[in-house]
Design brief:
Structural class: mainly alpha
Radius of gyration: 38 Å
Strand order of the largest sheet: 1-2
Shape: elongated
Strand content: 5-15%
Largest sheet: 2 strands, antiparallel
CATH class of one domain: Mainly Alpha
Low-confidence stretches: none
Order of helices and strands: HHHHHHHEE
Helix content: 40-55%
């Protein structure tokens, strides 16, 4: 059972819902719903039915699973039930890309787009408004070095630290 269950979970993760249901249906017959294994198998079946677009079977099984004894599976079934019962919203056509049918037969050949037409459709992006970035020149590096040296010499003369320490009595120190 564990091998078939793992194979069914792997098939669901690959999106192969038909194979997953083929593996799960014999297991569902051998394990009734009140058992924990039966509830887990049916939860996987609900996921596969949702993937196939068979919401009616998924909805019916999910309603039964909401009365399961296992609290975790019961909570998962309730969450799936909310998703299944939610109304489906219309999606605008401009949210999806529609690809042309590229099927070819032996009698027809596909027309190749000319490279000149393809080049005219794709325009390179405009250059940035500030122009290309350039490395600093040698003169700039020398100027920065001179300014930093001058500031170091200028500011080093303004620093003087003096400290006085006296002991007027036992366990007393005056700092100044």
């Amino acid at each position: 059972m564990a091998v078939n269950l793992a194979a069914a979970e792997a098939a669901i993760s690959r999106g192969d819902y038909g194979q997953s249901l083929a593996l799960l249906e014999p297991l569902a017959k051998n394990h009734p719903l009140p058992q924990a294994e039966g509830a887990k198998i049916r939860m996987l079946m609900v996921t596969a039915w949702m993937g196939q677009g068979n919401e009616q079977k998924a909805l019916a099984t999910c309603r039964i699973l909401t009365r399961c004894k296992d609290p975790e599976l019961r909570q998962n079934a309730k969450q799936l039930l909310i998703v299944l019962e939610a109304p489906s919203l219309q999606r605008p056509a401009n949210w999806s890309i529609r690809l042309p049918n590229l099927a070819m037969s032996a009698t027809t050949t596909a027309a190749r787009p000319s490279s000149a037409r393809k080049r005219s459709l794709v325009q390179p992006p405009p250059p940035p408004p500030t122009g290309p970035t350039r490395a600093p020149n040698l003169g700039f590096s020398i100027l920065v070095l001179l300014v930093l040296s001058w500031l170091t010499i200028l500011l080093s003369g303004y620093m003087r630290i003096t400290n006085t320490m006296s002991s007027p009595g036992p366990e007393r120190i005056n700092l100044g």
